[in-house]
Structure formats: structure tokens, C-alpha cells
Amino acid sequence: MKLYNFTELLQVAKQRDFKALGSFNLHCLEMLPAYFKAAEKTNSPLMIQISTGTAKYLGHKLLVDAIRSLAESKNVPTCLHLDHCSDLAAIQIAIEAGFSSVMYDGSHLDIEENIANTRRVIDMARPLNVSVEAELGAIGGSEDGKAVAQEDISFTTVEDAKRFVDATGVDMLAISIGTVHGLYTGKAQIQHQRLAEITEATKIPLVLHGGTGVSDEDMRLAVRSGIDKVNVGTEMNVQWVNQCKQTFEKGKVNDSVRNFLVPANDAVTDVLVEKIQLFR
Q1: Active site residues
Q2: Residues in contact with 19: Cβ distance below 8 Å, sequence separation at least 6, in sequence order
Q3: pTM for this entry
């Protein structure tokens, strides 16, 4: 089975009565079966996203081969997406390795430079049918070692969003409307009116980063208002680590390691199923 790009996978999701796609960060290879189990349980297509740190840790080729093999054996339409990358050379490596979607993050640059670099990525990706996500505005919090302080958060404006989309033709746009990367102990305050106005102005799929910490009610409303892709990562990581801490503490040194990991993977599957159901 081929890996789907985002645009293709979103069409599959709509055909199966999902209004949006969850895009779930994979933190280690051991977690991977849990993602496919959740997709099977919900009859959902699957979008797995990889940080540059995870890609370096596991290797691009291993990720592509493992995910493509599971997608075929489980018959789950799957997209493999490179998340938050500001390095054009690293994006090229991911594309050449077989990733089917990439994100260029130029949100830290002025808009003209962000537009120019995004267009370069699109030129790399389009010939190979790879979808491209960009980001406009600064989303707070920390992810994969990159942090944006509270005072540096910059919300996406309607005018900038329209200008950016018109100038780049990007496949989807991540916007800053109040969510926070890595938030799992508080509640995000989404600016729904801003989202609705950006949706009307751009008319392309919009992406919500920092999906952990968003209430179910806010998530459903955001999806109804134009969000087509929701990034979730921290919540699975927290559940996996919590379960591993419990099972490793109780385990014996001669126990099979898989016995420590199965409860952690089951917890991740439960989180994924819950999140996926929100997008129906």
C-alpha cells in the first residue's frame, strides 16, 4: 500500500464521515502498534507525524518501511508527516526517504521570508506528490526542544493568512489561535471568531497545533469552524511514560520487556480512540 499525502487522506476521512484528521506524534517505534490498533478500532485513516528529533533517532528509512508495512498488513490508509521542520535540507531528506507529507515551519521569520522558503519546499514536494504544511503566527509552549515564551506568542491575522495562502498555494496552514504546545495540565483558550474569519478568507485546510489541553467541546467547535487537521502528541507521551513507570517499577529483571510495554501501548490506544472519535 502506498503512503497517502494529507490531501488524499483527508478525502478518505470525509468518505468515512470524519470531519477532520487527527495527526499523532510518534515518539518511539515501540508505540507504533498502538496507533494502528486505534485506527482499526475506529475505522479511521491514520496520520502519523514525526519530529526531526525522532526521525534522527530512528532513521527515516526505518520509519517509512515500518509504517508502510503496517499500513499494508492492517489495510489502514496512512500518511507519514514530518512535523515542525525549519531546515530545508532535512525536509529534502524526508521527502527522498518516502515521507508523504512535510511541514516547513517558518513562523519565526518575517512573512516574506516565510513565504519564499515555503515556496521552495513546495517546489521540492509537488513533483513527488508530497503535501506541504506551513505555519503562520507563533504558537506558545515547547515541542521537541523548541520553545516559544508566553510574551512571544503571535496570533495569526486574517490579512496575513490570506496573503500567505495566495502567495504560496500551500496545502494546509497551521495557525495560532490560542492553543499551546505541550499543554496537559491546563485548558487552552481558542479564539473561535478568529478561526472562523481565517477559514472564510483562506478556504484551505487549517491545522490546529497543541491539541492536548483543548477541551472536547472546543475541539468539536474548532473542527466545525474550519480545522481539518489536529496535532496531538503530548497526551500519548504522558500516558505511555506513566504506564511504563508503573510496570517497570513492579517488574523483575528477567521479565520480558514487552510485558512492560503492552500496558503503555494499551493506554496510548485508548487516548487515540478517544481523540479520533471527536473528529466524527
Answers
A1: 83
A2: 223, 224, 279, 280
A3: 0.91
